[in-house]
Amino acid sequence: MSNFHKIIISISSDIGFYLAKDWLSNGIRVSGTYRIRTNHCDELEQLGAKLIKCDLSNVKSIDDSICKLNKLQKWDNLVIATGSQEPIGRFIDCNIDSWSNSINVNFISQIRFIHGLLPNRNLKDSSSPSVLLFAGGGTNSATTDYSAYTISKIASIKMVELLDAEITDTSFSILGPGWVKTKIHDSTLQSPESAGSNYFKTVEMLEKNGEKCYPMEKVIECCNWILSSPRELVGGRNFSSVFDPWESDEIEKIRKDQNNFKLRRFGNDLFKKN
After folding, report:
1. Residues 36 and 56: beta-carbon distance below 8 Å
2. Ordered domains of the chain (ranges, CATH)
3. Digit-coded pLDDT (tens) for 37-67
4. End-to-end CA distance of the chain
5. pTM, rounded to two decimals
6. What is the separation of C-alpha 258 from the centre of its chain, rounded to a whole number of angstroms?
């Protein structure tokens, strides 16, 4: 068994599950949280994972989970794989309490986990502990009908940059996995009227067993690449597993500008005087 310890919040999510399986198959210690027990949980426990039940909409449940995780071995990697697209529909038509709860689950609760678990990161034996979050669709455009989910992801992108600037002994990154065949799309399929054109796009992407989707194995490879890369390259940045050349040396070009792959305003030089 490896001395590395890796934690996945929402380990029963599809990406969390396959990432955990990859690590466990390589003899790495894996711990994680789940909200609803599934067959994924049973399989991971049989492979040696330490699982803790946690409801990310409940502060006490989160704090209890943090306390339990902090009693385990210090961690080298922390991955937060939580995500919910609900409520779906125009902002003005959404129940504001449901909208606020989405912000809480998709952003606030995840930051609460990071805040609570950071003191137990491995600074002695690890070259640089790494934290990885996930971005989503709509961060580069005004995708309608998913405002709470999109705003949460944008906040996460900026928070990753802020944390990386403040906590220089740890690498913080965020990854947009692309269109992957996961359970997160179920809410869109169940809301054809509220989702608008996104419903038809989702049906199209998922037909024929999701053959148009980005392969899960490539997402896992990209996660491992980010978590094993030097902070100077990946720290504070927002990556795309689909569009970025992370499998080649070309990715080294981003080192040239600290603004690369970060949340910035376009057009600052539009009225610049010569």
Report:
1. no
2. 5-256 (3.40.50.720)
3. 999 999 999 999 999 999 999 999 999 999 9
4. 62
5. 0.94
6. 22
